[in-house]
């Protein structure tokens, strides 16, 4: 584990703690991110961006633009989730494996009523996922389409309970509303969406995202990298955000925003 920095609380100005020193149990940071409207089904997104708006570095991976400050928040957000929701492209690019909550964060997780195991749920229209992820003792939940070429093979490999058909109005596409409903039906109501940008944009467009945690990395990378949301059309309307808190360490800014839901 890298050396973890203290986090300055820049906003809100009336925060009781102005500096969050790293602790093994991260009690203060967990309390900060557990605070707020998180009843019922709650979808929180966590993304990272450079100052010039790139969601990855030149290697096309988010790992090249994050660091120790982001890692502190990343671990806490996972500890607060029932399930991590990711698109298949991100799973392949970032080489996801079955998820584990660090031992030192499990007591706080249990105190908040979260299940012992942190689930991984993968959205894939094709049903194609790496063998290294499927051939484990804790394979992910797979949310796919009825037309996926690998559907029958996935069911035979993982079992019917781990494969969910989540079709929607667009033929051959996974419907984000069906995805969130399917997770909630399994008791997975605290959803942490870790991207990629296409999945996040689809969730926002479907009015499903309650909260965005966004880290700004102090880098300029140029190039053709996409933003943290990737959709060919504009959000209509644009989604208003309300800043809950803003943290800082070594030039890295970490914001937490509430997303205005159109149906609220």
UniProtKB/TrEMBL annotation:
The keyword Ribonucleoprotein does not apply. Keywords: NADP, Oxidoreductase. SUPFAM superfamilies: Dihydrofolate reductase-like. Residues 42-229 form the Bacterial bifunctional deaminase-reductase C-terminal domain. It comes from the Bacteria. Pathway: Cofactor biosynthesis; riboflavin biosynthesis. Gene3D superfamilies: Dihydrofolate Reductase, subunit A (3.40.430.10). InterPro entries: DHFR-like_dom_sf, RibDG_C, Riboflavin_Biosynth_HTPR. Transmembrane segments: none annotated. PANTHER family: 2,5-DIAMINO-6-RIBOSYLAMINO-4(3H)-PYRIMIDINONE 5'-PHOSPHATE REDUCTASE (PTHR38011:SF7), DIHYDROFOLATE REDUCTASE FAMILY PROTEIN (AFU_ORTHOLOGUE AFUA_8G06820) (PTHR38011). This is Riboflavin biosynthesis pyrimidine reductase. It comes from Cellulomonas humilata. The lineage of its organism: Bacteria, Bacillati, Actinomycetota, Actinomycetes, Micrococcales.
């Amino acid at each position: 584990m890298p050396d973890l920095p203290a986090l300055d609380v820049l906003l809100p100005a009336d925060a009781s703690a102005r500096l969050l020193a790293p602790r093994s149990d991260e009690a203060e940071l967990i309390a900060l991110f557990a605070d707020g409207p998180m009843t019922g089904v709650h979808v929180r997104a966590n993304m990272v961006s450079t100052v010039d708006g790139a969601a990855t570095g030149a290697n096309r991976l988010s790992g090249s633009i994050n660091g120790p400050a982001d890692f502190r928040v990343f671990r806490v957000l996972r500890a607060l989730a029932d399930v991590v929701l990711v698109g298949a492209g991100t799973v392949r690019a970032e080489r996801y494996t079955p998820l584990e909550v660090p031992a030192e964060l499990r007591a706080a997780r249990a105190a908040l009523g979260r299940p012992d195991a942190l689930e991984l749920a993968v959205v894939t229209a094709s049903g194609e996922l790496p063998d290294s992820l499927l051939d484990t003792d804790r394979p992910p939940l797979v949310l796919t389409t009825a037309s996926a070429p690998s559907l029958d093979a996935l069911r035979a490999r993982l079992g019917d309970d781990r494969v969910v058909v989540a079709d929607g109005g667009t033929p051959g596409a996974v419907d984000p509303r069906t995805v969130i409903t399917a997770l909630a039906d399994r008791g997975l109501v605290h959803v942490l969406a870790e991207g990629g940008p296409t999945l996040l944009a689809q969730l926002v467009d479907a009015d499903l995202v309650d909260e965005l945690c966004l880290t700004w990395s102090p880098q300029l990378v140029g190039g053709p990298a996409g933003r943290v949301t990737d959709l060919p059309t504009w959000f209509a309307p644009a989604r208003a955000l309300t800043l809950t808190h803003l943290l800082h360490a070594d030039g890295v800014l970490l914001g937490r925003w509430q997303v205005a839901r159109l149906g609220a």
